[in-house]
């Protein structure tokens, strides 16, 4: 009941000059709060106060004034205060926010966001020609920001990012080279100093930033292993920034196959300075290698075109190496360690997506068919050759 003995037990209701009614109440913070909308009748205002009182009694009340912060202000603060983000990740989040989120939703207050508004924002991005992959990245960022607002800061009652499938990406299948193609690609590098660079990317499954950050002391004396101790990221306005690998699991030691050790040792002898902290791979002036130096110096585009895979990206070498490693039937844990992943998700993908595995399944199915057909020939009911469904 909103009234007791003729007096309102919780909150206040007053009639406005317009004839509508305004409800207000004293919140747990000691401040007076007005309902976000006015009501056509006094009973409607009473019912709203009853609902608010119930929320307060369940200790679920959220200060509506805090939800007045704009999406842009809260998201920028979220990025700045997020612990452990690498410089490249901070740059990416800021770029996604500025490019795709704030132009559409930046001025909206958190408390005004709802799922239909999020759905319309996503539809506008796609209609404007933004790729599904980039739209999914922007959506995942906004979802993470609002998850903090709902679950940790308790500014909004729930995360409005509830659009089914909006955060999923379905990128095109990337090419996987054969072992012979990897060595042929390495031999096609216009500058011999990058032959070992290609081989390490494929057979040690190292990321670009991890390879360019290698120093002589990170290579075992017999080139049997390589230690990943850091990585370079290239940031606009700051150039190359050295820091930790992409994840905690990125700090690792990777055993190298014997087939590429001689190439790596030859590279160290010919192209790497003798100091223990000398960079293994360098640009024209002996500085750490930058992406802008790689393509023109190595003739990458011509090499991959001559190889018959003109759309091959450098990162596809790591993809190739991970696929080859999975074909050795290594365990999920071992694949995770080699790839430098904290989560088993990527390792499981490679384990279940190899061509050999697919061929083994196909061979197994063929065996089932043959056994069914073979068994049918001995039957007396004339059903030879008919496949019987197996429950």
TrEMBL record:
Gene3D superfamilies: 1.10.150.130, Intergrase catalytic core. InterPro entries: CB (IPR044068), DNA_brk_join_enz (IPR011010), Integrase-like_cat_sf (IPR013762), Integrase_catalytic (IPR002104), Integrase_recombinase_N (IPR010998), Phage_L5_Integrase_N (IPR058717), Tyrosine_recombinase_XerCD (IPR050090). Residues 370-391 are annotated as: Disordered. Residues 172-363 form the Tyr recombinase domain. It comes from the Bacteria. Residues 69-150 form the Core-binding (CB) domain. It holds the Pfam family Phage_integrase. Keywords: DNA recombination, DNA-binding. Belongs to the 'phage' integrase family. PANTHER family: PHAGE INTEGRASE-RELATED, PROPHAGE INTEGRASE INTD-RELATED. This is Integrase. It comes from Saccharothrix longispora.
